[in-house]
């Protein structure tokens, strides 16, 4: 259940930013979650619900944008979209690749008043 | 009002991990983060490997478990310094837990720190502790399908250790499939095949760890 720990980190970041921006209540949070991160959207939702209280409004919305995994081939310099299990360039089949998307866990933006 | 952040959720953990890494680098300590499911044999592997390390390798161990000090006690019996962290329900170690115990570890007397993470193939993969290398341990009794089912940790780990190979004749573990799957997920991974119980295959792993420690000390 590391989604609970992730949501705690989200709240720490939001609390700091909300204070700096004079925001009392957060009404919407938008996350970008890479599909290689092991973070389950359902579990994040549950942790978000549990975290509602002093900062998150009772009707606050969590939006999660899943991000597909992409690799850049160091051999042919082309980008491939990959599934979980094949870290090969789909153009030249090289395994000398670098992950360029799909491993991110980001707070994109939030809304509040 | 909308506030654009584009902030990494794990930035707090990653910042502390970077501080840990700085301390380890300054003191020339090579750090291994060992990850496996419960019962794969992480602690037994350490009990067998640590006493056989060459004399210039000076190890210490941090043990992560939900509760009890059983694992740290087992390591201490080998004569190696061990410190137990109890996560009290937490499913993984994070960088802050490591940071908080560093002052209790004789960092000036060691050059190898082994962190045995909480038994779990999922959550520990996401949390950088400041280590040089992740090592994933799988035992043949768990089945050869685990790299495909838990690809994140098998991709992140620079080293994999297949344990309990003395039981290969008694279980339906498809070694060829295991190797093919690892090749697809992490073609550059260094792979070892051992039985901690019979001590088969330990020597190459011990030499590999010793070389890593020496090259950090010499080449940093």
TrEMBL record, chain A:
Domain of life: Bacteria
Binding-site residues, Zn(2+): 73, 76, 89, 92
Pfam families: HypA (PF01155)
GO molecular function, one term: zinc ion binding
UniProt-listed InterPro entries: HypA/HybF (IPR000688)
Positions contributing to Ni(2+) binding: 2
Annotated function: Involved in the maturation of [NiFe] hydrogenases. Required for nickel insertion into the metal center of the hydrogenase.
Name assigned to this protein: Hydrogenase maturation factor HypA
Taxonomic source organism: Carboxydothermus islandicus
From TrEMBL, chain B:
Top-level taxon of origin: Bacteria
GO BP terms, alphabetized: protein maturation
Record has Lipid biosynthesis as a keyword: no
InterPro entries: CobW/HypB/UreG_nucleotide-bd (IPR003495), Hyd_mat_HypB (IPR004392), P-loop_NTPase (IPR027417)
Acetylation in keyword set: no
Domain CobW/HypB/UreG nucleotide-binding: 31-190
Keywords: GTP-binding, Hydrolase, Metal-binding, Nickel, Nucleotide-binding, Zinc
Cleavable signal peptide: none
Pfam family name, one: cobW
Molecular functions per Gene Ontology: GTP binding; GTPase activity; nickel cation binding; zinc ion binding
Similarity annotation: Belongs to the SIMIBI class G3E GTPase family. HypB/HupM subfamily.
Record-given protein name: Hydrogenase accessory protein HypB
Species the sequence originates in: Carboxydothermus islandicus
């Amino acid at each position: 259940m590391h989604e609970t720990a992730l949501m705690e980190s989200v709240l720490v970041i939001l609390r700091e930013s909300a204070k700096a921006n004079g925001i009392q209540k957060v009404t919407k949070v938008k996350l970008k979650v890479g599909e290689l991160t092991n973070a389950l959207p359902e579990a994040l939702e549950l942790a978000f619900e549990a975290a509602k209280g002093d900062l998150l409004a009772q009707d606050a919305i969590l939006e999660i944008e899943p991000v597909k995994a992409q690799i850049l081939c160091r051999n042919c310099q082309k980008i491939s979209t990959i599934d979980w299990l094949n870290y090969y360039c789909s153009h030249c089949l090289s395994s000398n690749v670098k992950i360029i998307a799909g491993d991110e866990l980001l707070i994109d933006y939030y809304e509040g008043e | 009002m909308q506030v654009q952040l584009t902030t990494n959720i794990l930035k707090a953990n990653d910042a502390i991990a970077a501080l840990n890494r700085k301390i380890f680098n300054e003191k020339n300590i090579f750090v291994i983060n060992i990850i496996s499911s419960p019962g794969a044999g992480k602690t037994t592997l350490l009990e067998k490997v640590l006493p056989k390390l060459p004399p210039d390798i000076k190890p210490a161990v941090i043990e992560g478990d939900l509760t009890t000090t059983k694992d740290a006690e087992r390591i201490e019996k080998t004569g190696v310094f061990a410190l137990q962290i109890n996560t009290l329900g937490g499913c993984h170690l994070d960088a802050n837990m490591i940071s908080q115990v560093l002052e209790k570890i004789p960092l000036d007397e060691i050059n190898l720190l082994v962190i045995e993470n909480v038994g779990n193939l999922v959550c520990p993969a996401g949390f950088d502790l400041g280590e040089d290398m992740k090592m994933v341990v799988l035992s043949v009794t768990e089945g050869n399908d685990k790299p495909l089912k838990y690809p994140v940790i098998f991709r992140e780990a620079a080293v994999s250790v297949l344990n309990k190979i003395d039981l290969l004749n008694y279980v339906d573990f498809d070694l060829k499939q295991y190797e093919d799957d690892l090749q697809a997920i992490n073609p550059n991974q260094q792979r070892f095949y051992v039985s901690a119980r019979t001590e088969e295959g330990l020597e190459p792993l011990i030499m590999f760890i010793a070389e890593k420690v020496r090259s950090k000390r010499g080449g940093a």
